[in-house]
Amino acid sequence: MTIVLALLLAQAAAPAPDLARGEKIFSQSCAIGYCHGAKGAANRGPRLRGRHFERQYLIRVIRDGIANTAMPAFKATLNEADLNAVIAYVESLSGAADTSGHEVSSLPAVKPAAPVAEAHPGRSLFFDATKGTRCGSCHVVDNQGVAVGPALARAAGTSADILNAIQKGKANRVRMVTIRGEAPFPAIVVEQSSDTVRLYDLNSMTPVLRTLPARDVTIGPASDWLHGSLVRGYTAAELTMIASYLSSQ
Amino acid sequence: MRLLLPLAFTCAVVALGQDGATKENWTDYGGTPASWRYSSLDQINRSNVAKLTPKWIFQTGDPDGGLNVTPIVVDGVMYVSSSRNRVFALDAETGREIWQYRYQFPKDFIVSYGPWNRGVAVAHGRVFMGTLDNHVVALDQKTGRELWKVNVEDYKQCGCNITGAPLVVKNKVIVGVTGGDSAHRGYLNAFDVETGRHLWRFWTIPAKGEPGNETWEGDSWKYGGGATWMTGSYDPELNLLYWPVGNPAADFYGGDRRGSNLYTDSVVALDPDTGKLKWYHQQIPHDVWDFDTAYECVLFDAPVDGRMRKLLLNVNKGGMTFVIDRTNGKFVSAWPVVKHLNWITGVSPEGELLGRNEPEVGKTKFLCPSIGGGRSWNQGAYSPKLKWYFTTGIEWCQDVTATPEEPREGQFWFGGSFTPKDPPGERAHGHLGAYDPVTGKRHWLYKPTYPLLASVLVTAGDLVFTGDPEGYFFALDARTGEKLWSFQTGSGHRGSSITYAVKGRQYIATPSGWGSALAGMVAQMWPEAEKFRGGSTIIVFGLPEER
After folding, report:
1. CB–CB contact B223 A77 (8 Å)
2. How many A/B residue pairs have CB atoms within 8 Å?
3. Would you say the pTM of this structure is higher than 0.90?
4. Domains of chain B
5. Mean pLDDT calculated for residue range B299-310
6. Range of A132's domain?
7. CATH number assigned to the domain comprising residue A34
8. For residues A215 and A90, what is the distance between their CA atoms, to the nearest angstrom?
């Protein structure tokens, strides 16, 4: 009894869902490409605009998703307030006419294709998709990238120190490895047991995580492999910019 | 004592050019690297197909996303991949599980596009698969143990992943990528089958300074799409790798990428040893419809104007079939697989699009077919015996509006929106037809209740197999389109059936499991389809054992 009362009080005290917030989340999470279209006017996913859904149904589907379809469970990615906001927004679409696409005349003028500006040009270079091998292919910084080499902490040193490490650093973890029948190659050993060795083969543009029988693998001493050999796709000026990004606060 | 029916290989009139027929094994995604989806097995044929009965059933246990796979069979073992990159090796005679592999995703992993997988490649004692977090893995064919794993590109950055089946050519495993509806620059990669080392990358959009970059405005080439999300074909005699390249991004708005946008909506012919471009044929310069030249490249030989030619057939999402000379990329013919098609008025004798009808900013235009496709990715089949190509088609249209949008790397980038609609004067519907592959002359047309979204299989027994969204798997007479047999498998069909033989006995196998992005769109036009049940099952049929 007390619990029920407490729940009722909690509900009464909850702030009204923020429709503007709901619309924003919808446009970023639900209107996108494969899904429900701008303002719920349908895309590959079903139309939501101008259709009536039971509130309980909306809550269940938005929170838990629909099995066998592309509808995900948003409780995994949105917090409670955002979930409520988006549920309220979808509910508000039921009263809207099915005016798919008629709002576009108020859109801003055409802009040339350009990515949304990054905070630091060094960051753009770190993750530059036009480079065959880019820093982000092996390192994570600010929760982006692939964790093959060590994660990089920003502000880990002066720009000059970092540049020196990028160009001339000898990675201690990199060993020369010989596998029966193959030429020796630089590698980072990830796991080693009596019968299996797992290592990153650094001999190609994209590191390969290989699982090998321990008997076939000879792990040499720390190699004279230089980190600089991996960053040839960048100019010196670009590397300076990346170092500046990594040293920035 | 049981009597086996004779198992004959009808080596049809394929003396010239490559034999794209399968025999006991179904070795590649498209049957063989010629992508015919045709088997020379004829033990099961028009005279006895009505007797087909289930032999075994295998459940993957995870119906999320359905079962989109083409199983591979090598020497009595079937290899099946299911949603979330699970792989199973099964005894193809009994259905007994030999091993299973579950790909380990990062803890914070969120699926983009969808959880499905269309198949593995098997060669060199390994099983190869592309993953939802954009890796390629190689498994030991005997044990399923992981041998190597390589990250193609950070999935969080590129907004792309791999759902298509790899193709193995010599010592290389060749893998495409999704991402054509995102701000992403597409590519095709080759890895060493033994070590996983990267061997070459072909960018589907040329960089600054490379030939073809001038077909892109400003920096639009950096985010121009051009996904390679389905599987290519290979001609060993010409040593040419053919790969279909998808639409440019943004899909519906092209005002900031003026130009023909090479090599999107093209078939590219590459040297498989180096990844270098030999030639290309672009079907849709400056695509603003998302009409993806992404589907199978069927390699076949046929007379054109009295001369035998080496040809390549490719149906695009706009419902047009393009036939080109596969030695040099020269246009041969084009024909539609749907009646309702108004985005162009036709194709010139030189292969150019006529009367382009483009989406516009600030206006809603009625265009056919729908973005769901005059045909979807589920593949057609070619019979060298009948010299016909069998393909599905969908008659549906859409209201579409273009909207300028700024690209955000790795994020969806559509540049518009659409709503599916019935075509003029009739209810939306699908069909399966038999066509002359060069002229498009239609021999018959089968009309199901709902559009068919499963691939087609054709055999030397003159049977055409496919399944429907309601769960029926059925056989048609390849010569007439008459239905000869049907079986309710319990869930709709979105995968690809195959045929193979073990110990002299022919089997037909089909995935059953409704799901995929398009399954959601079907429910918009046919609301009852929202209730079609999911599943993820392999069902294998054979003839009764005679006593």
Report:
1. no
2. 196
3. no
4. 67-430 (2.140.10.10)
5. 96
6. 121-169+228-247
7. 1.10.760.10
8. 60
